[in-house]
């Protein structure tokens, strides 16, 4: 007997004892899957679960992923990826601030992660940033675990308020040079929720902007095959309220899609040429930008034929 | 303008504001994927990450999964699933204990999860169970988070030792009625590691069994298309050392495979008929078994033609 | 410039020119995914699409898969895998034929693939096999492309009828020693369709069995965590009609589940012991069986405690 | 008995009989998975396998997919998706042709699919297009099955040659206004293969361009997180050979990445402004373009800061 049978006479090459019965020779892994559309999935490997938490609103998790580094999830939804959040946040913040002649005060609706405030605080002209997010646990979680934003949360210029941004903006007496919408897409709660309505822009946002103030908001997917319920509707809604409205887009790898933003103002200085932008960056920003410069700025403002036909 | 454009006049059906920019209308989920073989994957949905920890040996995680309830992972490897761990642990423990006329003392190599000890302690005859696992954090983690084993870890009869099971067994002067191998497959550290060698069975395990003692070990995958490096080699290795060696198998849903175990002894009373097993269960076990009884016992001992040809 | 830049001076190691623009260095593959349950997926790699066809009832495809060899799909549903179809078909056919003292005529409901007839024709006693499948294209496709069944379709003893099996059985005057149900699960068309009703068994199947005849049918998933709507209901329905009803199960790797069958008769000789089965196989079957023998037979007939409690 | 048991008295709601044993109540589907990077997958649902073929070089398949319509695969690699191939092909063809004052003759290396020739033939100035692809079966397959290119393959102006494009270009005596590289990435056969070397551009491509001729080639992934081995190396290699070299990029949804192309010439008229491009399109193109116009052209030519730093 035993001719073909393995009789284990020998000690092993290496000890490999994990006290469990089941470390089979099978490969195991954790994957984060995003169903971008029916029959279309975007999936990436999760190497470690770093931290988990929960608030009255949602579960919070910070994952270490293979392609995108640390990823922040709220209720299982990807909020931000270490590898490319700079693209989203530089695109959200700098076009508006660079277009404004002297931005000193900024109100951020949402943005509890801290990255939007981080980009705003790179501008020397900034005296005060109000970040108003409804979820205290998210803010605390990010302050504790997102090392890239640690200094931001320390900043004397940052005023963090835990409240519904709409109510806070409604009540506050102060006006701002820049109001930034760093909120969930309106699709979630119906065709468009109260932070994306004409009434909200007309009665609240507009009235809280100083003369020459600029409003900018993220505006959801904007790719050639994207579901375009959000981007065009935000654009056309803002067109009802502001004289100058500029949509712009760029590709965010971790979303596997092109993303859209819309800037709005009643002052037309929001159009700038590339070289002006470069000199403004040099004079006003004392940190380095990884994504934004004059050429980038003038490129992302040019939508392709498909996007413009929306 | 705007004929086809959504102008957001209306308030939303429901507030849905999560303070993040990116809760898109995309479905997101976390999946645990096991590569059972090249080109063959077994994947299940993870609804929540319940607890995470780490030891000097490995990462530890407890996940809530959709198909299998709570799942324990060590270094990303599935150890045990709430939905069917009873099948694995009843099959590991009861055939040997029910075959022995009066099992009083048991040594468990590994088994830090506590479920193997739980099944052993269902036998009224048991006076003492030694559970020897190398990883203290795993034992503490399971004691804290696996509520199903809470009473087990409280038991006066349970003696938990944190050490390499091989060294502990080597050093201990006591002998046991039953020795249970609840360890990782030998494939991990090479063709077969020191807890599966002929020398280990011959010089250590056998010498720590009382007269009529029985050794039983999990023996890896045993299905018709499984990688059969482990099961046959454990069987044939034990045949070199013990007079009576009985392989047996059953399907474990969460592994998506048939699993194997091997019982070995120098006394031939380990063959029992179904009705004897049923009466032994009635007389000795004061808890209910979900999987094991006489009919089950006699069924799992019968391998099919393919399995026997290994 | 160019210090860090690749300037391509050299010819390539190997030509690799495929006339397309897009053979990027990305790995690509085709996967067949079966959603076994919500949040539970069984997925395997498809190396080639071998043949495709279509009938009035369904699409037909034969795929080359990595783990299971050639796989037959009907309307995207896996029907049979080269690697382990022998387990399903030997388990469907031989217990009934081996239990019968002298099976000469067999009626197969469905079975257009040919594998069920193949197993039946291994029995020397067989004089005639009627295979009645509703889908001519499936039968033609399998006859052309499933080389393993080529001889079967050539057999003089095989009578292939293209028709609804229920109507055919109703109309035919002949009676049979064995009737085999190789049909879709009744779940598809509601709680149970006309080929699984008490009325069908009572009025049609039973009346077409010769004295001592045996009916056997596949009965769907039968694992510990399987959806058990089918297996128990077929068992209990047959119990209303036949005196002796025997459920049995075994694991089918390519389904990643344990499968069930039910044998029914009014004669109790369908219980056999292992050694009898072995001698019957020796005397009656002139081909080799890969899965079935006496030990296998007596093993698969023993359900575990969970299965019996259904 | 039977209290909890389903006894099937009733006929089914609907017949559902497919003559197979195994149409279980499980959902089944075919998926095409692209491993974009380690731990990052792009997966889409395949609703039907439309056509399959094979050549001496590769397998050919045309799949019907849920998110991207018909998809052409060569050796399992995605070549082209019905939903957005116009983006790739308009971006490959029109910038070069629109930059040239009077493009009459074009040589396409590869492009067997026919879509590149289709875009070229939209220009009224074109007198002759040579498409040189090595794989006859691919050309025949696309001619037969890609209805969108049917007219293109009928065109009197199209000259299809089945041969290695490098050898053909080397031997042909004619010179061209435009040479288009619609080939596999050089990464496949090593750091860069003979169709992407400085020697090839210098000695062959350049010498086959008429005065003021333009060479353009696809240049692989060009996103912020893309593997950038190809795009920069093609750019820097062409800079060694041509006086004016223009890289440009845009997002291709079905690749889930930003893609790059590089135009090269010794004449600097290849820089155009948006309004010039629009008027050239109006005067020269008698078909409609879905993606390209002046604004699009000037946008895709502006790389962002990250892309320019490559």
UniProtKB/TrEMBL annotation, chains A, B, C, D:
Originating organism: Selaginella moellendorffii
Catalytic activity: S-adenosyl 3-(methylsulfanyl)propylamine + spermidine = thermospermine + S-methyl-5'-thioadenosine + H(+)
Cross-referenced CDD domains: AdoMet_MTases
Ranges annotated as spanning the membrane: none
Record domain PABS: where: 29-266
Single GO MF annotation: thermospermine synthase activity
Residues in the signal sequence: none
Residue numbers annotated as active site: 182 (proton acceptor)
Enzyme class: transferase
Protein's GO biological process: polyamine biosynthetic process
Keyword annotations from UniProtKB, A to Z: Polyamine biosynthesis, Transferase
Name of the featured protein: thermospermine synthase
């Amino acid at each position: 007997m035993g001719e073909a049978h393995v009789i284990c006479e020998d000690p092993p090459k290496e000890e490999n004892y994990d006290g469990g019965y089941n470390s089979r020779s099978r490969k195991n892994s954790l994957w984060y899957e995003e169903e971008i559309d029916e029959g279309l999935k975007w999936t990436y490997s999760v190497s470690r679960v770093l931290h988990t938490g929960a608030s009255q609103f949602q579960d919070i998790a910070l994952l270490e992923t293979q392609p995108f580094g640390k990823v922040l999830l709220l209720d299982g939804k990807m909020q931000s990826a270490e590898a490319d959040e700079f693209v989203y946040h530089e695109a959200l913040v700098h076009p508006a601030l660079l277009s404004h002649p002297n931005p000193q005060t900024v109100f951020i609706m949402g943005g509890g992660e801290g990255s939007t405030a981080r980009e705003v605080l790179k501008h020397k002209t900034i005296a005060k940033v109000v970040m108003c997010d409804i979820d205290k646990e998210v803010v605390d979680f990010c302050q504790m675990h997102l090392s890239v934003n640690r200094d931001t949360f320390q900043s004397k210029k940052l005023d963090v308020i835990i409240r519904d941004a709409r109510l806070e903006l409604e009540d506050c007496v102060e006006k701002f040079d820049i109001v930034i919408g760093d909120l969930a897409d309106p699709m979630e709660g119906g065709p468009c929720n109260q932070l994306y309505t004409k009434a909200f822009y007309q009665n609240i946002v507009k009235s809280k902007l100083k003369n020459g103030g600029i409003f900018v908001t993220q505006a959801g997917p904007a790719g050639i095959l994207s579901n375009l319920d959000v981007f065009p509707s935000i654009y056309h809604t803002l067109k009802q309220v502001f004289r100058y409205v500029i949509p712009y887009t760029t590709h965010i790898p971790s979303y596997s899609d092109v993303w859209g933003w819309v800037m709005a103002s009643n002052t037309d200085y929001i159009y700038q040429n590339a070289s002006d932008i470069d000199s403004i960056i040099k004079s006003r920003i004392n940190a380095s930008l990884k994504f934004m410069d004059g050429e980038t700025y003038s490129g992302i403002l040019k939508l392709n034929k498909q996007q413009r036909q929306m």
